Amino acid sequence: MTGLTKISGICPAVFVLYTDATCRKIDERAQRAHYRKLVDHGISALVVGGHAGEIVSLNPDERMFVIQMAKEEAKGQIPVVGGVVADSTAEAIAMAKDAQKVGADAVLFTPPCVPGWKAEVNFLLHHYGAVEEAVGIPIILFASPSDRYGTQYMITQADMKMLLQNLPSVIGAKITAQWDIGGFMRIARAMREVRDVGCLKAGGQAQFAHYAYGADGSLSGGTNFSPADDIAVLRLVKERKTFEAQKLSDSWMPVYDTIYGTQVGLPVVYFHYRYKVTAWLTGAIDAPWMRLPQMPPPLHDIEMLRDALLRAKKPMVRRNLAALPVSKV
Q: Which residues lie closer than 8 Å to 288 by C-beta, 6 or more apart?
């Protein structure tokens, strides 16, 4: 798949699945089956370079392996997006080259985590620009209208415009805003004033609201367990069936309130692991294990996720719950 100029639609940040609780080996059979299941649902891209996919916990060979498997299972039907998470520009170039070598159609590019970093657009221009020049692979930015999710993600409208004006390889952005619909809308509008690139919402909350205000799709770990509903919400909004779209979107609210934690008194730090536990509870995957430094949420959290799924009347196939083990290094 060549000539990718825009990213849109429902694009799951796909989990990595392991053979056992030590998380020392990727389960190729389960991984391929999960890719196929998502593709068969009609998603728009497989994103295998996100934080929900534990990109920072995989070694270079493993990162290339999950991309290679995704390419083989996608069979050219949809793009496969690798990832770049690096504080060093040289390392970012190496990661992008590795992804390109095994067939990635684009990379999701996380900005560097530098102490004191906040909306440093000149740093970003040189960092992204060096990768663009050295590799030439399409780039999906990772940004936020505020510093709530980390100062490195924060970007202003003017800075987003500057990036798009100077980086022709950018085909879209994952914008994490949750309920800050106005912040999302302002960044998305700034992007479209430069050119037609994809504006993807992050996370599973407020899908209807984001699509109603112009999001082109989503890039979220939540789609691992709700691909059919995520696709349906976006389709219903496009068909102007707003009542049905809002009802379906809101039906997941108890689940996402528990995943992100802040609305129910839980720490947000476990939310990536809670994504995976939710997928396990619903039967989307066979096991929820994650590598360190991710720590399994307490049993109380798992029980809260079960109860949230039951309140939301979502499929829930795991009945006998127990505390999850910590993975091995």
A: 273, 276, 277, 279, 280, 296, 324
